[in-house]
Amino acid sequence: MVDNSEFSSIFGGAPLMAILRGIGVERSLAVSTTAWDLGIDVVELPIQTPDDVEALRVVAAAGRERGKVVGAGTVVSAGHVQQAVDAGAHFTVSPGLDLEVVRASSDAGLLPLPGVATPSEVQIALREGLTWLKAFPASVLGTEWIKAMEGPFPAAKFVTTGGMHAGNAGEFLAAGAKVVAVGSALEDPTQLPKLAELMGRPGASVQAQSQNAAT
């Protein structure tokens, strides 16, 4: 059995998570800072190239200084799990449900957040002990999928990923998602005010835009 219930305290009720994919070390750090200034405490950096791993290392170190949690995404092998450990990640995120990766992450002291897209995968994940799951690709699954899973699987807590932005995040949260993961929206000044509003911090958007411009 694997327990990833610590995500409840990590997210702390905040409805957004940041995903920064393939934008380099400097930009990853700058956009992470934008997220943190908005009150988005949790950041995920997918690791698919050596540059991605270096970006994860730098952002994880900066996150520790600010008391923020940083994880590794697109973790699909035990080798990726070790890279995540070495870079200082706190958790792993996978696009699909691979119990070997889940167990390797847990054995390494990292919280696993596997991806699911079917009732069968949700059921298997829950049987393994996992309660926090990544619904992916969320924009394809849709809000009705989130609602439909609540009946048979009330213990499942979903982080929606894939095609999420300021315009649809509220819809997925209203449908029952616990957290929505956004990426490019954090680099779009027109979306920052709405993201700040979703975080319950409308004034934070000005600070975040100023920080983004400075970098």
Structural class: alpha/beta
Low-confidence stretches: none
Integer tally of domains: 1
| CATH architecture descriptor | Alpha-Beta Barrel
**Which CATH C-level class is it?**
Alpha Beta
Roughly what percent helix?
40-55%
- Radius of gyration over alpha carbons? 16 Å
For the secondary structure, the number of strands is 9
What composes the largest sheet? 7 strands, parallel
Looking at CATH, which topology would you report? TIM Barrel
What is the CATH homology-level superfamily? Answer: Aldolase class I
Number of helices: 11
Strand content: 15-25%
What does this protein structure show overall?
- It contains 11 helices and 9 strands.
- It is α/β, with parallel strands linked by helices and 215 residues long.
- It has a single domain, classed as TIM Barrel (Alpha-Beta Barrel).
- The strands form 2 sheets. A 7-stranded parallel beta sheet has the order 3-2-1-9-8-7-6. A two-stranded parallel ribbon has the order 4-5.
- α2 runs parallel beside α3, α3 (50-66) crosses α4 and α10 crosses α11.
- The protein is globular, with a radius of gyration of 16 Å.
